[in-house]
Amino acid sequence: MKVLEEYLNYIEKNKKLSKNTVASYNRDLKKYVEYLNERNINLSDVVENDIISYLIELEKEDISVASISRMISSIKSYHDYLFFNKILDTDPSKNIKKPKVKRVDVEILTEDEVDKLLKFEDLSTPKRIRDKAIFEILYGTGIKVTELIDMNLEDVDLDIDYIYCGSGKNQRVIPLCETTEFYLLKYINESRNELTYPEEKALFVNAQGQRFTRQGLWKLIKKYAKEANVNKNINPTVLRNSFAIHLLNGGANVAVVNKILGNSNLSSLQLYLKHIDKNLRKEIKEKHPREHEIN
Question: What Pfam families does the database record attribute to this sequence (predicted)?
């Protein structure tokens, strides 16, 4: 397993993959290696048919196409690393193709639903102030849960109204709107010191005064989603999607929104674009100077 640990360290440090992605690769590859060990197949002896047989086993377990696609990515990346570093003589995964994953529509909240979710009438305790700030940051910046968890106090610069998102490979600075800045400042000034210790670096801390875990933050979001009585499956991704689409509907530039989200290319926003208010399309149809040039 030493080689696996070296590989995981490589993709985290050199490839700049997020901790969550590295953890997913770790789980996928441990399961793959376990399968090989159960059949007494050494990693150096693996051939393409062994990998195909493993994938067939996964399909029998009724694992989703998206999960199998990710597992294939993990296996191909691992074997590529082993071959490139001359640990193995061949790459048996090079011809394995990923199944096409059917893209589903993105889920979003309406602006009224967001208002219900973010309406914290009781801000009388440090935890309630913290929770309000968390929701304002998630919806106000569109950052991912892992990015929020990894954020440190020093990543906030309220003098210039920015936060620094430094986890993963999409490092960037994100501007804060007035409301987001107000509640973040309130948390830092009035709440954070009541919840943690001076030496703690994490921006947001849990009940033990330590950095949130991904699972802990999800539970928190589910709790407030239930309280808001919004009949949708609210999760961090839904808040991120809502942030993007509400900005686009307000007339924001697609490339700017994409940059704020930390996406590496414009194709990542294709699923968002069909949610743009039809009025924007109407504006282009009616008012673009080139619209009526063709006779």
Answer: Phage_int_SAM_1 (PF02899), Phage_integrase (PF00589)
